[in-house]
Amino acid sequence: MKVNAALAGLKVLDFSRVYAGPYCTMLLGDLGAEVIKIENRIMGDDTRAFYPIKNGESGYFNYLNRSKKSLTLDLKSEKGKAIALELAKWADIVVENFSPGTIGRLGLGYEDIKKVNLEIIYVSISGFGQTGPYRNKAAYDGVAQAMGGMTYMTGLPDGPPVKAGPAISDAATGVHAAMGILAAQYYKNQTGKGQYIDIALMDTVFSILENSVSIHTLLGLDPLRIGNANPSSAPYNMYKSKDSYIVIATANDSLFSRLCKVMDQEELITEPFFNTNPNRKTNQAEIDAIVNEWTQQYTSKELEKMLDDVGVPVASVKTIAELAQDPHIQHREMLVTHYNPNVGCVRYPGNPLKLSETPADTSRRAPLLGEHSTEILASKLHLSVQDIEKLREENVI
Amino acid sequence: MKVNAALAGLKVLDFSRVYAGPYCTMLLGDLGAEVIKIENRIMGDDTRAFYPIKNGESGYFNYLNRSKKSLTLDLKSEKGKAIALELAKWADIVVENFSPGTIGRLGLGYEDIKKVNLEIIYVSISGFGQTGPYRNKAAYDGVAQAMGGMTYMTGLPDGPPVKAGPAISDAATGVHAAMGILAAQYYKNQTGKGQYIDIALMDTVFSILENSVSIHTLLGLDPLRIGNANPSSAPYNMYKSKDSYIVIATANDSLFSRLCKVMDQEELITEPFFNTNPNRKTNQAEIDAIVNEWTQQYTSKELEKMLDDVGVPVASVKTIAELAQDPHIQHREMLVTHYNPNVGCVRYPGNPLKLSETPADTSRRAPLLGEHSTEILASKLHLSVQDIEKLREENVI
User: Fold this and answer.
1) Does the interface predicted TM-score (ipTM) exceed 0.95?
2) Which of A164, B43, B388, B393 is the most interior residue, by most CB within 10 Å?
3) Angle between the B373-381 and B78-90 helix axes, to the nearest 10 degrees?
């Protein structure tokens, strides 16, 4: 059976590198858009050299660049720029995440592309956006998380602020950008008009702080880090198990009685210090200590089973190694295997969008550097083999 | 000048509550989709009672539900269900995030809706998805972060795992869902076909772990928490300032020399322990201690200025109160003011998508409970004032 692709026919010219832009275009590519990734002809995307690396292949790069074709191009050469402009005529969408101003200096900014393709949807992703006082600040994820409020809100109450471990400002911005692109494409389908989209890591981080901002703007308070605890319920925290940690989320009285029964401490249900959620929250240290003493007698796996069985919300703190073997991750097809000639078969995270009619196609591994240069120049720009060889000799591709 | 909306004409019937679904439909509403939010007629969306609250208005709810209309409906009554089905005929898209199976038992699952609207795009958001061994686990953000690997990767190396403070599994899943909806809508524009989308918090978390998964799948290692440090560069960490904390990201030798000059310790540039990035990483504790001693002499603001001036990547760990006054946040229109009759003017985070031709419209505050019930039933279902009054008396709306 032929499987349909949601975004079949959508054409993306991708100048982006590292994380936010590549995550955006991977999501589009998985759903069927044709993505041509332009890479520096010497080293390619910076992440081709990012940890982890084996036999010269980076796991960082190979996860984030599946479903794309790679064309190497020296954008500083006249011929390279001319090829990029020709491809911009072909494209529906351009994505870039250089620091603000850089791509304009290469002659490939929105105004330049619009001259050759009036209907283009052009997306610039950056740390702080194309405008505003911080626009020229260096844009690392750790910087964006700190500047956007995520770091301040993460960590234990008695410890320093800590950023979310993985670079979530990049991933979150990438998927917001993909959503913005498809909204702009919806508009273009109705009106024929393209447009420019400016999206910033700091803005995105600031918009995913849950209730943190409104605690300040509504009540005038400065919200504080609460680690793994919950602002209104207890016992609702992370506890030590015999072998690791366990999250137990006792959000109401009914769940608390079930927990007490499993702990074989039913007397706590009616104990005046703990008999209501507000009382337990007031005496959080005490009830957390009782739960913590109990959890340390069992492994995380044992605790998870005991509490799952009675419907008390519980989670092992899964390690990455555990997740790689996790039956649910497997069932959800959240690990996909790619064969790469240099490292053989390696598994990478799959696509979280499960569409019934047009499932994401995560089968196409990330390209080798310039793997599709010849194919793209021949099929999109109708260059001859001789023309392409000449470009190669001239170090354009 | 009339401002255009990217998603003008797109019709969304929204059964979702709490965070992931409402964030998804807010993004769609901001860009011009018409969103009808169905709420329980007694209490409405659970988050109407979530912290922070002032004069009965929740900042949690009011941030996440702008750009929507509220219709109260008793979905367990026959008449309420009939109204929901009529609205499903009107809609292009249905969004729900009950626990798996719940909305099907109400007679409003995908199969039910498809009978009255074959082309519907129907999105179910849940903690673990509609299928798989964990599908019935309770879906709190803290549970999803722990089960998906984010918690394991977050926190200081010598401390316990910590979840990202705000509920990022919800926000990330919400925006992925919005992206999936618009991809399905693109397909529907081409083919006329609708479909079902199943998206899970755990899957989404697992897909935004940066290189964590491939460290394991490519190298066989279990990646570890590194707090605010960087796996390959030093000094690249969070340091104490006189008044707070500061992030300094010295990613290469050139940035390190600039940092040394600002610290007035130029001798470190050629010091054999620190003269290359690998050497500094090997002696990270020593170089971090030197930087930390220097940073404690200045306020975060002073440090940020000194290092910005010479182009060394730096970030204050902004508090929420600071961000509420931040000139860049203001310039980027990332705080928007809503007037609500019960609490007056309150500011909430804006929309991070800056589209030139169809800017997000963030001006429409979240609705009061059932604020648009009459309007929706009259305009969409052509009910008379008497019919609507009767529904109200019968506790259907």
Assistant:
1) yes
2) A164
3) 60
